[in-house]
Design goal:
5-stranded parallel β-sheet; alpha/beta; 158 residues; TIM Barrel
Length: 158
């Protein structure tokens, strides 16, 4: 395993040419160090910390300040992996300006290299705004926990 820092160009190259990327979730320094030392390519500081760490019934209560705090713990010890943090519920949906401000907070205070938002096509305009603002972002096409949890209950781990 190489100790070279994983960058966005490296991620793009590996998505097309391989090998596959290992993306794992970390909420604190201990887990981040273990996963980084173990060869994880991308570490996600997920808003799922609301359920996994805080014992909340969903991700809705997670705040931007809490995401920045957990991101800081992860980025302090990560040497190789690319660190991405979720934008929590209502930190980006209101406007493009709010989205850029929230993403900037995670980059500046949390030390992350990218932010992830959920929402699919409706968030396309916001993604364009962020790119113009110089913010690297990752979109999610997976389950939209924060958006759908008010409609159906997401099972808690354990």
């Amino acid at each position: 395993m190489t100790t070279t820092k994983i960058t966005v160009p490296a991620i793009r190259a590996r998505k097309t040419k391989g090998p596959k990327l290992a993306t794992l979730t970390a909420y604190d320094a201990t887990m981040a160090r273990l996963l980084d030392d173990g060869g994880a390519d991308i570490l996600l500081v997920g808003d799922s910390l609301g359920m996994v760490v805080q014992g909340q019934p969903s991700t809705l209560a997670v705040t931007l300040d809490e995401m920045a705090y957990h991101a800081r713990m992860v980025t302090r010890v990560t040497r190789r992996a690319h660190v991405v943090a979720d934008l929590p519920f209502m930190s980006f949906q209101v406007s493009s300006e709010k989205a850029l401000e929230s993403a900037g907070k995670l980059v500046k205070e949390g030390g992350v290299e990218a932010v992830k938002l959920e929402g699919g096509v409706p968030m396309a305009e916001d993604r364009a705004t962020h790119r113009r603002g110089g913010d690297p972002r990752h979109g999610s096409r997976g389950p939209h926990t924060a958006i759908h949890s008010h409609v159906r209950r997401i099972p808690r781990p354990g």
